[in-house]
Amino acid sequence: MRRSGGLWICRRPLLSAVQVLVCVGAFMLGSMLTLMSIDPMRCDIHQCTEKIKRTNVEDVNSLLGMWSKSNRGAEKSVFLVIVMLSAPANKDQREVIRQTWLSEEKADTLHFFVIGTGSLNEDLNVTVLAEQKEHGDLMLLSNVVDSYQALTKKLLASLVYVHYNVKFRFLMKCDDDTYVQLMQLHKELKSVPYKQRLYLGFFDGRASPKKSGPWKEEGWVLCDRYLPYALGGGYILSSDVVNFVASNSKYLKVYRSEDVSLGSWLAPMDLHRVHDVRFDTEYKSRGCNNKYLVSHKQSTLHMHEKFNSLKTTGRLCREQFQVRKSYNYNWNALPSQCCIRNDSSIP
């Protein structure tokens, strides 16, 4: 009896150990399956689960260590990704963009309209979801209440999302009131000498922080001017720059202005900052010039006019005109002296 009892006593802890191992194994398997079910690398780029599409920046960062290359699926590989910050109600603008310059989108280009869907009323939410079902090109952020104050968070979330979903060479950020000569831009990017460390756009270095109004920057304490940045109507980043921002997103200070924020995030980096006067991307358009690759502050009527003019005449503008002078950025001067508008011959 003692022998029998002794054997039972010895087997009990062995049985308990087996049970613990089984439980641990089941937990790990369940966790792995859960991660696989939300891993953006394991779903089609246009049909990724709503859970990952609606993941916020903080949630993404909490999973960074778990998304090793060994367990990722096939990436969507393109030359150019375009992210356009849009508002839920701006369906007409998105439709016009799809009908005009995005109609020339090549197979090696991928676009997203980035929209915050937090606190949407029922009617607008239904409209947005119907648009997504029809086009599949919306990046929906349920944790973002869409507003001007949320633009930087939308930008950051979109860069994180693209970083984990797409293999690409360049990324363009623009707004839903921006017109792009897409085919010409493709040609320029194919021949650009900098394939890495590229930050391309229309730069400003002498802007002072806003003290009031919707763009007031209460948290700006770096210096008495904004750090040099490419204006937000449209700019280009190489993939390694996007990767840097996405990988460090939880450490980055979010300012009110998204273009100012990006300039501050990239300020210490050793980059090729390329000022291109063909980017008409300021807070108001400088006019119309056939050399412009990117034109900001365009109405839906202006977009149709530019598209039709290109189709019928091969020129962007029916008539070229200038309402304010441009400038070449002087990188050899102090930022406060960088940007002098004294030459009307500059586009």
Automatic annotation (TrEMBL):
InterPro entries, per database record: Glyco_trans_31 (IPR002659)
Membrane topology (UniProt): Single-pass type II membrane protein
GO cellular component terms, A-Z: Golgi membrane
Pfam family, one: Galactosyl_T
GO aspect biological process, one term: protein O-linked glycosylation
EC annotation from Swiss-Prot or TrEMBL: 2.4.1.-
Enzymatic class: transferase
Keyword terms, alphabetized: Glycoprotein, Glycosyltransferase, Golgi apparatus, Manganese, Membrane, Signal-anchor, Transferase, Transmembrane, Transmembrane helix
Listed pathway(s): Glycan metabolism; heparan sulfate biosynthesis; Glycan metabolism; chondroitin sulfate biosynthesis
Superkingdom classification of source: Eukaryota
GO molecular function: galactosylxylosylprotein 3-beta-galactosyltransferase activity
Protein family: Belongs to the glycosyltransferase 31 family.
PANTHER family to which the protein is assigned, alphabetical: BETA-1,3-GALACTOSYLTRANSFERASE 6, BETA-1,3-N-ACETYLGLUCOSAMINYLTRANSFERASE
Protein's name in the database: Hexosyltransferase
Lineage of origin: Eukaryota, Metazoa, Ecdysozoa, Arthropoda, Crustacea
Gene name per UniProt: B3galt6
